[in-house]
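Problem: given the chain below (82 residues), write out its structure.
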Amino acid sequence: MTSIKWTIHMVMPATLLENTVDKRVSLLLKDGRSLEGKLTGFDEYMNMVLDETVETAADGQEGRRLGKVILRGNNVVSIALV
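Solution.
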């Protein structure tokens, strides 16, 4: 029987966000909406600034173009690169 060795590396959220600045991200919010835009900045509380942001409603309908958005970090459920 072959054994598989796994290595787990802990990545801090701030480090992950640093590597994501100036890239397009998709954010899922607590209320079910999604925001997609270019991450231009963040702080130690994971509050984020997105540029060229588009909102998609919880029911999947294409939403509004919001432009520049400042988002409080505690509203974010998940972050994905686009």
